[in-house]
Amino acid sequence: MKKHLKIKNSTFTPVSAVPVVDNHQFKKDVAILVAENSRLSALFVMQRADQKLICAVLSKDEDASLTLLATPCQKEFESLTPHIPQAHMFEREMHETHGIDMIGHPWLKPVRFLPKPGSKDEVLPGVTNYFEVTGEEIHEVAVGPVHAGIIEPGHFRFQCHGEKVLHLEIELGYQHRGIEKALLRNQPHQNLRMIEVVAGDSTIAHTTAHAMLLETLHGVKPDRNAHLVRGIALELERMANHTGDLGALAGDVGFLPTAAYCGRIRGDILNTTAVLCGNRFGRGLIRPGGVGYAVDKAIADTVLERLRSIEADLISAISLIWNTPSVIARLEETGKVSLDDAIAAGLVGPAARASGMSVDIRCSHPTGAYQTYKPELSVGSNGDVFWRTRMRWLELKDSMKLIRAMIGELTAVAVAEPLRSGAAADVIAVALTEGWRGEVCHVALTDKSGKIAGYKIVDPSFHNWFGLALALRDQEISDFPLCNKSFNLSYCGHDL
Amino acid sequence: MISPLSIIFWLLMMLMAPVLPGVINKTKAFFAGRQGPPVFQLYYDISKLLRKTSVYSETSTVVTRLAPLAILFSTLAAALLVPIAFRSAGLSFAGDIILLAYLLGIGRFFMVLAALDRGSAFEGMGAAREVLYSALAEPALFCGLLVLINETSQISLSGIYEKLTTEFWLENPATLLLIATSWMIILLVENARIPIDDPNTHLELTMIHEVMILDYSSKDLALIEFASAVKLAVFSSLLVGLVFSCQGMSVLVQLAVFVAGMLLVSIIIGAIESSIARMKLLHIPKFIVGSGALAIIALILKLSGN
Description:
- With 496 residues, chain A is of the alpha+beta class.
- Chain A folds into two domains: 5-103, NADH:ubiquinone oxidoreductase Nqo5 subunit (Beta Polymerase, domain 2), CATH 3.30.460; 180-459, Cytochrome-c3 Hydrogenase, chain B (Orthogonal Bundle).
- Chain A has helices at 23-35, 88-98, 179-182, 188-196, 203-218, 224-252, 256-277, 297-322, 325-331, 339-345, 349-354, 361-364, 385-409, 460-471, 480-487, 491-495; strands spanning 5-8, 11-14, 38-48, 51-60, 65-72, 76-78, 101-103, 138-143, 155-161, 164-171, 286-287, 290-291, 427-434, 439-446, 452-458.
- Chain B is globular and about 55 Å long.
- The relative contact order of chain B is 0.17.
- Chain A binds chain B through residues 139-143, 148-149, 162-163, 250, 252-257, 259-261, 324, 326-327, 329-330, 334, 476-482, and chain B through 28, 31-34, 121-122, 124-125, 128, 194-195, 198, 200-206, 273-283.
């Protein structure tokens, strides 16, 4: 085994330094790394000079490292999936975009229903072969892509025996906008706007990762206060979404009090983000080089003051959940994902932590404000809806603590200067952040003029949708909405 | 023997029925700290729906079109057999109890048939659940009635309810309390309330009652909504007649107590829905069988007492 190239989060390395091994060795090396507790953060096709390569980014928590490894991209590729299940979506993606034949992959279904490489024929999303279970008492239930609630489109196909779900198949792709390609259109001033809407509820997580990449490529170090504002915004984003989800979970089990209050409190938290930048979802706040809006002590104090009433409201609304046995009974033992399955499927974020995985980029690969302010990593044990719910509350409380600490240090920060040209040439840079759903991974590749020549985004939903399918195995079909909400994954983040 | 007063009361109850869901929703809104829809919302909804035109699925047959009428009329007929405001029911004869149970059964039968008629996977699942739960609830209802029949030596509903005086309560507090609890659970089951069903959910996969009427619109939906409100009134009046006793008082007092009792039942339903979560589907049969167990305990108490 050749010595691997290890880099740190939010740094770059010359593309030529990435070791290139043959397909067989690549498979062996990735398997060894995964066996040594590395996670596959990204696996994608990249163009190096005159050669197409398949590149893997593996993150390891123990030494805060990111391992880069590549293999020549040919017509055929020996699939990693049979030994490393977490690679299955990445390989389906590469098969779809580059027509690579993944030998040994169990089912190379389309991910986003793109036209075949080199062809322009439109492909209708959702139109494909589905896994079928046959038998006299088996019935199939199709849900979506149009849903009864105001959510994004996605198609769910259940194979049921009575109320019991034998298999759930999730087909997405309806929201595909071609963001990764659009980022290369040579209009970098538009890129930030696009990154903000990769997944609208994770604006801060994605823009922070993007900003980190550009900063490292341009050799710019943001102000300490800018880092603090980013940390505060990321935690507010986490709080708003966790609160909304706790309310929605309560609503799904028909528990009205928490459902009604959380909807309002989520609004209060979003409005607190708006105090920082005028936008409830934090659009425009993060800018490569720092922040897009000046923040001073007065603004910070307003945030702190709002946080005080939000905390009191949250405690009274959420504690109702833990004090009502009928709610707990409904959540417990529903939609379990075992630790082994979670590790094999490569789950990230609160869903992974609920199953007992201790993964959190803020702890393992800290950047910015998190180098000083470490979150308290909460880990669940059962991987059921209860623990995915509980995780939200534990993280909410921790987020409030972090925000307080960061505001304590914050003084004032001015609007960042636009980045000047002169990015590092022929390099590959990786940035990871911990969004509220989990690990957000951005990888950028520059050409010899320092222009971005390749960009890969991995939203946590890309890892976790399969976890939802696992959670539904042998569950009742009526538990699907609850399980779905406990993950609350992004459709557009997956579809890009 | 049909007395004009009982027919007037029957009409009054039909008119009042849509208030009950309104009261439930108001109660739930109060607990949630919201203002909530007006108490008379269902009247507005029904009048709006009556002015719309129906849309039918291409796969549906005449069953879908007939079902709303069958559901409405079977429910209205059932209401005619229930003693209202502590008076004899509009229609009363020996064994009318059986007719009451199966008139409601006919309504359910048509609703299930119509749900299957459209051939949707959701509606089929809802129908299967509805049939299972009502099959479990039926023996519980009859078990309770059996105790009352045994105790009062009457086999018409009006006859039984006439005997449910305050003295009767004082003599048999335990059995009556058990039956009242058991019937409260049956009321929640039959009217698709939390913890069995969630009337507010938009999640087709979890619904029971709502999913069976997903395909209905306009007048058909108005009829079904009205029939559901009447069904709630029927079960509430059975419960009110059991718990309160105003035998021999003036009509006005009886009417006042009855109306207050009906509203109280709705408020209790609202409070239940605001304080507990919906059950896991798998646990619902146990819950319903539990209500039957309460009625059976009442029966055992009664029989061992004699």
